[in-house]
Amino acid sequence: MPSSDVPDDRLPDIPDDGVPQDLPDDIRPFRAGEQVRLEDPKGRHHLVTLEPGRTFHTHRGGVALDELIGKPEGVVVTSSGGVPYLALRPLWSDYVLAMPRGATIVYPKDAGQILIAADIFPGAHVIEAGAGSGSLTCALLRAVGPTGRVTSYERRDDFALIARRNVERFFGESPSTWHLVVGDVAEAPTEPRADRIVLDLLAPWDCLPWAAATLRPGGVLCCYVATTTQLGRLVETVRAHGGFTEPISSETLVRTWHIEGLSIRPDHRMVGHTGFLMTTRRLAPGVTAPRRRRRPAPGAYGEDYTGPRPDAPSLTSEPSPAPTSPAPRASTPAENESCGHEADPKLAGRRTDDAVRPEQTAPEND
């Protein structure tokens, strides 16, 4: 049945001069102090805080915020300039892209991959190093739920203050499942054990001994780095440690599409490179990772390589055998005569391609 034929008795009529009195229990109206996302007809978003008596001014007129207080999500308000604005509660991605920043945030596309790659589950104990502006912290806290725990480390006081304010503003209070520590995670205690560790640091390889001592067997270590040099050193350090599984490295690129009738094409803009993810899992104490059987590319660990070198024989760089040059093609007697040269008696009676592929030459009969 088409949706237009289905009566919607969940939303009561909203009086012009008041707030609806009989909203269903599962529909939360906008309240004063909440953040609201206003979207104009061109898709531009504005995050505003609802304050009684306040007007949100745009270049297309002002929007009286009193018109939104008490209304359900999904209503449309019109500015004084006649422009309609759709009002919705902001998503996590809306919030982190608009919140105040100290350090660069972990962008939504990478945060989503971290939650899946690190397998952040409800009730997990997660340790995060490099809280930055708190964007990933908000995502981790929602993923672990009320029975989980997130411990965030941040070395800089100013970044820690920004992260605390952003997290408290997002949740409306300081979550009871969150503990923010100002200090170096490499000096953090190794007990109690953590289920997951997420590192967003400049040199995460320096924290590898601590991570190995803190992460429970089978736990996931996920690192977020910005450059290929960081990624290379991190992966080789994890391999050289021997107490983790083979690292998996990846990056995520997001491209939206324009769809309008028969015009279906990629958008002109995309969210390209922001960082790399490396994930690995902790082995049991005393267990060494099995040697890789895949031989590295020639020169991968050559003289110019200065990073950690794997000590397994199967990983050492071995010189590649020199390529065998094919034998020169033998000319035919007709070609020799046309060039004014006599035929080589050593090549007499042989086909032209015999000199090129001597292994295919049939043995001569006695």
TrEMBL record:
Domain of life: Bacteria
tRNA (adenine(58)-N(1))-methyltransferase catalytic subunit TRM61 C-terminal domain span: 96-260
Basic and acidic residues composition-biased segments: 338-357
One GO CC annotation: tRNA (m1A) methyltransferase complex
One GO biological process term: tRNA methylation
Start and end residues of each stretch annotated as Disordered: 1-26, 282-366
Organism encoding this protein: Thermasporomyces composti
Annotated protein name in UniProt: tRNA (Adenine-58-N(1)-) methyltransferase
GO MF term set: tRNA (adenine(58)-N1)-methyltransferase activity
Stored PANTHER family: TRNA (ADENINE(58)-N(1))-METHYLTRANSFERASE, TRNA (ADENINE(58)-N(1))-METHYLTRANSFERASE, MITOCHONDRIAL
InterPro entries attached to this UniProt entry: SAM-dependent_MTases_sf, TRM61_C, tRNA_MeTrfase_Gcd14
Keywords: Methyltransferase, S-adenosyl-L-methionine, Transferase, tRNA processing
